[in-house]
Amino acid sequence: MFDFNSYHKAKSVDEAIALLSQNPEAIPLAGGTDVLVRLHGHNKNYRHLVDIHDVAELKKVTMESDGTIVIGSGMTFTGLAHSPVVCENIPVLNEGGSSIGGPQVRNVATVGGNICNGAPSGDSASPLLVLNATVELKGPDGIRRLPLYDFYQGPGQVDRKAGEIMTCLRVAADDYRGWSAHYYKYAMRGAMDIATIGCGAACKVVDGKIAGLRLGFVVAGPTPLRCWRTEEKTIGMQADEELIDIVKNSVLGDLRPRDSWRAAKDFREQIIKTLAERVLREAIKRNIRNTEME
Amino acid sequence: MVVGTSVQRVDGVAKVTGKARYTDDFTMPGMRVAKYLRSTIAHGRVSSIDTSQAKALPGVDGVFTFEDVPKRIYATAGHPYSLDPHHMDITDRYLLTDHVRYMGDEIAIVVAVSDLIATKALSLIDVEYEPYQPLVEAKDALAKDAVEIHKGTGNVVKAHSFVAGGDLDAVRKECDQLLEGQYKTQIVQHCHLENHTAYAYMDDLERIVIVSSTQIPHIARRIVAEALEIDTGLIRVIKPTIGGGFGNKQDVILEPMVAFLTKKLDGIPVRLKLDREEGMVGTRVRHPFDVKVQIGLDQEGTVKLIHFDALSNTGAYASHGHSIVSAGAAKTHYMYPRAVYSCTAKTIYSNIPAAGAMRAYGSPQMTFAIECAMEEAARTLGMDSAEFRLRNGARAGDKSQITKKPIMTCGLLDSIKKGKDLIGWDKKRALWPKEQTGEVRNGLGVAIFSYGSGTYPVCVEPASARLILNQDGSAHLQVGATEIGQGSDTAFAQMAAESLGFSFSKIHVVSCQDTDVTPFDTGSYASRQTYVTGQAVMRTAEQLKAKILHHASIISGLEATLITISGDNIVISESPEIVVMSVQDVAIDAYYNKERGGQITAEATYKARNNPHVFGCTFVDLSVDIPLCRVKINEIYNIHDSGIIINPLMAEGQVHGGMAMGIGAALFEELMVDPDSGKIYNNNLLDYKVPTIMDIPDLGAAFVEPNEPTHPYGSKSLGEPPIISPAPAIRNAILDATGVAINELPMSPKTIFKYFKNAGLI
Question: What is the pTM of this model?
């Protein structure tokens, strides 16, 4: 039995915004895989709910004429796994998404929830970071967009203002066309787990040289992080073992893994270095293979 | 033949279709909900408690604290009563306490009309504590100035010491080599699917009815009677279908409290149901062990002595703590029975959740230590690990050094040979490079085990059964033994059908135990039921058969000695194709003939006075990814000597379940304690890493089947043993792959990282 005080079900984004604006304490409820756990624990901050679970406009993936992929925040991870647009263009999102929970969780958990809960461990965050995704929010004052990287503000904190709903995540054509990517979740077991370290890599290799490289980690800092300094260093370098060595030895400088009872810092660092190497190697392999096929 | 065939489980359809009814599926009008107030510190005293606001909350029927409960100390361990005063269970609990001994200790309880109101009421109780320093580890609890967790104990539950088979010092001098090692096992939790739950009500002014998810209804009745000072006959315990226990329900945890509450509240039904987070700290866990082992060897590679020095941490309350180490030591002694076997052990109290019975009861911990040490011995001698165990392992005819009785059946060596073949031991040894380099390396490992078929001669081993012939020629079988998922009801039905000459479908097992009507049996633990209760079932079936034949003889005029039962018919013994009449004809006549007969029933009770040991081994082939500190099992086999297998498919399932649990304890699971506060970090199934289907490889199970002469169907135990040997086999394979000996559990990536870093591998 849950201890909540108010519950409203929104049928549209605008109605959700109105309901959230009327009740500043209210929490949006989408898939419920986080919110219901809080309710189960009688969390006092979750006593007012606005249910956006059935808002149809949030539950679609489309491609705009310029190739931008628009991912509705209400898409479930099972939905993403069955989306031809995602599978054909940004399969790395499903590498992250399909590592979340188990099938039952993925059938209801949404990508918007996975980002908006601000978890440092969100498995869709790393793929979306290496895809340079943009967040779109709609609120009483209209629509605004910002890079996903900037949306994260701290552990459990995102830049979602009062009354706002995250409507979609946008990936521009230039951020996936010609790129290849890979995500690997390192966890203590093969399903139903939070990442100990999650590593995503995207790269674009032109004539054997790195034209673009992005690395995104989860659980390696207070928020999901990109490895800006390492990425910058690699531009123009040969895509070879030396590059991989440099990346492996440089990523820790971009990250802030911590000691906790879940895992020690030195252990996380070992996994970060190993994953940086292996995930990047796989992304490069895929990019070279994809380029050859074209 | 019914015994030895893979008939379908008697409860299979009911369980997979959701028709089986568990404790929480029953409800009664007006049923109330009870919830514990648990301490927020690990060690100290409640200096004040104010329940007035909680009591005033509408919907609250009662709030009880340590001040309201009987001043009666009792024991919770689900052992049979012992007539030997030295073998009594340790009484160290009250229903509620003001002396807090672990974080989560029960200091008050609320009864309310709903779960939510009960939860709100708990938040309205004000508690102040006088905190003491939490004593989490042995060194804290045994420190000179340590506060006594239980008065007069010095924080020691029990110290044991025994030497079997010779003079330790003399044998030590004869040894060419003495090897020493130290091994640590972690706290694990049973994680049965169905949490602890019970409810109670009164159906007159004195009698209390308790419905509970328990492995031991008859023992629970006695313990409730002891805890509340009520006559045993006034307590009735009902056990419906149960969703697993693994020993955690061989402890009497909720039953005395629900009985107390309903009695306090004029008999209204009260349910007390723990959620997962509560259950993982508030029930029982497996004892963590710290074991030093010394192995003495001669030049030929014969093990001459095994000496342990074991420290076991039972946590806040004794529960089974006084018997776990000695049981583990006694049962593992059968692995290498020709060696002198010596054990000194100490079990201590500390401010962590209470440890109790868990599948294989001390043996997994001891076996991890012995089989790690044996691996070092084999490697030191340069002997093949399997060959070393073939040389030293138990054989039929060996005598137990403890009981001085001979081992009548022993398939250990055949198990090892079979395991070697299944895994391709010799072939892989020949093909694989001696020195491996590279990030991913392969290893082979083996470990053996032994275990008992019950608790005799330490405890009494009683079992009883009743058979009632129905009008349709079928029979109802009642046993006091409990089906807890292991398949015992099916095995009993097979045995009854076999002895009666009935087809399997003609036996209806009454799966629910009700102490008002069910014949006495102490319940499901110690892997005892197929062996012990099976003998009561056989005796009952023989009696019923004789009575059926007697009545058939009256009807037919044929001498009873000339006829028998086969295929649900009365047939001529010498010419079974000649059918005299059906069993149904006999039943109808017995029930309804005005001049003769009556209901045909039989009942037998039996005490087992043997305890044949089972043996077996695990073989594993695995890869270790060194930079990722991760183990991948490629192939794993458990080979068991459990005597004649009653139901091969169910036996295989039992082995698979035990292996998966063993792999969980080997590589994944650990209940983690903050050493400063005594807080459990991970009392939930997200942070406590029970392996998922993704983490468990294909499991191989095989059997060798010597015919055990002390059992009517040749059977020995199988319930617990499959969990014992996977962990040391996996550890030995990691050693084989990497040269690194990991001497603590779990061998999770975090542990492996520490060892690989120390070894300079990463």
Answer: 0.97
